[in-house]
Amino acid sequence: MEISSLIRKNVLKMQPYSSARDEFKHEADVYLDANENPFSNGVNRYPDPYQNELKLQLSALKGIPAGQLLLGNGSDEVLDLIFRAFCEPREDNIVILPPTYGMYKVLAQLNAIECKEVLLKDDFMLGVPKVLEVVDQNTKLIFVCSPNNPTGNSIPLDTIIELLENTNCIVVVDEAYIDFSPSTSCLSLLARYDNLIVCQTLSKAWGMAAIRLGMCMASPEVISVLHKIKPPYNVNKLTQTKALSLLADASKMLEQLEQLKTEKKRVKEALHTLDYVEKIYPSDANFLLVKVKDANTLYDALMKQKIIVRNRTNEPLCDNCLRITIGTPVENEKLIAALNTITL
Ligand SMILES: *Cc1c(COP(=O)(O)O)cnc(C)c1O
Q1: How far is CA 298 from CA 149, 272, 309, 312, in A?
Q2: pTM > 0.90
């Protein structure tokens, strides 16, 4: 597949920003090239624009060569870079599959890209023929979120393969919740499909939402174009350092995942006993989508008790649904206690 034919012409032609440290890649004794304050305080020097040390860790963790990895200021920045690399404003379009993560549409609007919407099926599965029907020669990106936010289900690998094999556009699979999921990551497909981009984040399972670190894994060709357009110092030094120290303790994260799995089961059982709960959707993620008798009233009642959940009732196929994140045992206990005081 010709990736270069999908890249915006101005991006193909442009010269990326280059610093003196790009020209001299070894260790020097004296750095007088970047107008930094020379007095050391831990953060007076610009951070590594390639995040080499962090990429070494992450590429080992993910089993992906560092050349197939790009890091961003959260995966939201990575998603924005993907738009800017491939989509010609006011010409190209993308396809999203609602109900899904809201940022794809926001980024499309921001970048002046038409956003075509193909609803998931009633069981929240993806109908490939329906997607292919709206794809045209200006469709550059198809966004698949798996496990999907806010529905919690995973899209089977076979479905994603079917999509990859039947289109000439880039398929972006957003795996923000993959660490919670028993299903296989699309990373296993990277070697076979140049038009696949997989996004993951350290914000959810890894517990690093505040430091903003997202990643994108794709063919070397896609990664090099994203690298070319990214802001040089998009991942700051504090983030790189903190991520390295927290990534070193994978066992702690895995322990928390186990605990969250147990808690999810407990919250689910408690929800089942409430007469105003109509349906709890199966979830591979760290949240439950719950259909109730009257979502707005329940949402307000919980808020009065200082418990905030996400009201998704205005999303397509999510009529009267709340999305509830699984918290700590104490938080979940408070939620359950509050739910038991409410009648709808
Ligand atoms: C939370 C979330 C993200 C955001 O990730 P950041 O790395 O924190 O920007 C991306 N995609 C989905 C589907 C999410 O739910």
Answers
A1: 21, 15, 10, 12
A2: yes
